[in-house]
Amino acid sequence: MQAEPAPPDLRPRKGPVASIALVTDSTCVLPAEFVARYKIHVAPQVVIWDGQTLEDGIDITPDQFYARLKTSPTMPTTSQATVASFKKIFTPLASAGTPILALLISSKLSGTIQSAEQAKQDLPGARIEVIDSMHAGMSLGFQVLQTARQIEAGKSFEEVVAYARRAKDHTGILLVVDTLEYLHRGGRIGGAQRLLGTALNMKPLLYLDNGRIEPLERIRTKPKAFARLMDLLEEKVKGHSQVRISVMHAAAEADARDLLEQAKSRFSPVETVLAWASPAIGAHTGPGTVAAAYCVDL
Fold first, then answer.
1. Residue 165: CB partners within 8 Å, gap ≥ 6?
2. What is the pLDDT of residue 176?
3. What is the block-wise mean pLDDT of the chain (298 residues), using blocks of 10 residues?
4. Residue 239 forms part of a structural domain
5. What backbone phi and psi angles, to 5 degrees, belong to 215?
6. Residue 18 has what pLDDT?
7. Distance between CA 276 and CA 51 in Å, rounded?
8. What is the per-residue pLDDT for 285?
9. Quick check: is 63 in a domain?
């Protein structure tokens, strides 16, 4: 099944409280229908632009962000989801006696884990587990989605936590960026630092490795980079069962849809998801970025 890339609704969830509350952050980029169906709570990352502090997905949507980015003479920066955001989510759940599982962006890319841990410390006696996904984007999104399905299936809190801790070994992400400028400026460039200064028509192919952005190859022209991405994706999913594929884009929907159609015909995944790169991600990858995330055997 393919989900349209509607930005998630990050307002606090309403309705019946789930037996286990699942919390993530806005770099998860799960489309709105999944967030609503599984009652997932999303702590917004923070985008800072021209002196404004904006909550990712609440005060600024992907459409608004990329439209503004095209013409803005200034560049946005980001800050981790705040302690206050997590306390706003945790407090009513803890008061209701609901166990909470927070599955969050890699600690090597963001300090979000520390914010969640601080909020947990401020609620002594609450049953809260905070897990470092070691991922971001839809490689985190698939971990969250599959964990939500474990909760829906009625698994115990201990079983769900154990499952979530294993999930990071079953997902991954590959990405093609137009330029390394944004990653370099935001300090998220990792080992891809060595690709700086490459010719303008060379497109960096990157991936997340042990929670950090690392380089794979430099490829001449974007079409060739996309073709190579698909070959590498095949290596990642070949021989596995229950393959799920997502393509995430930063204002490059046509490219993303084309890659997702290729993935559907080439890999026969059991599920596909088309997703926006949230403003907090786009501020670091830049417009034009396309990423393919996969989930196997989970």
1. 131
2. 95
3. 49 55 98 97 98 96 93 93 98 97 97 98 97 98 98 97 98 91 57 46 88 90 95 96 96 97 97 97 91 97
4. yes
5. -85, 150
6. 57
7. 25
8. 87
9. no
The amino acid that residue 44 corresponds to is P
- What is the per-residue pLDDT for 64? 96
pLDDT score recorded for residue 202: 76
Domain identity same for 229 and 190: yes
Domain match, 133 and 241 both? no
Same structural domain, 156 and 290? no
The tokens for 103 are 């599955």
**Total domain count for the chain?**
2
| Measured CA distances, 70 to 47, 66, 78, 202 (Å) | 16, 6, 18, 21
Taking the C-alpha atoms of 109, 248, 182 and 192 in order, what is their torsion angle to the nearest 10 degrees? 60
Q: What DSSP element (H or E) covers 267? A: helix 253-267
CATH number at residue 158: 3.40.50.10440
Distance from C-alpha of 74 to C-alpha of 283, rounded to nearest angstrom: 12
**What does the pLDDT read at residue 84?**
98
Cα-Cα-Cα-Cα dihedral sign, residues 79, 84, 88, 91:
positive
Task: Verify that 100 and 178 share a domain, yes or no.
Answer: no
What tokens appear for 191 in the block? Answer: 């080992």
* Residue 162 domain boundaries: 2-46+78-168
Please say which residue of 132, 149, 168 terminates a domain.
168
Does residue 182 share a domain with residue 157? no
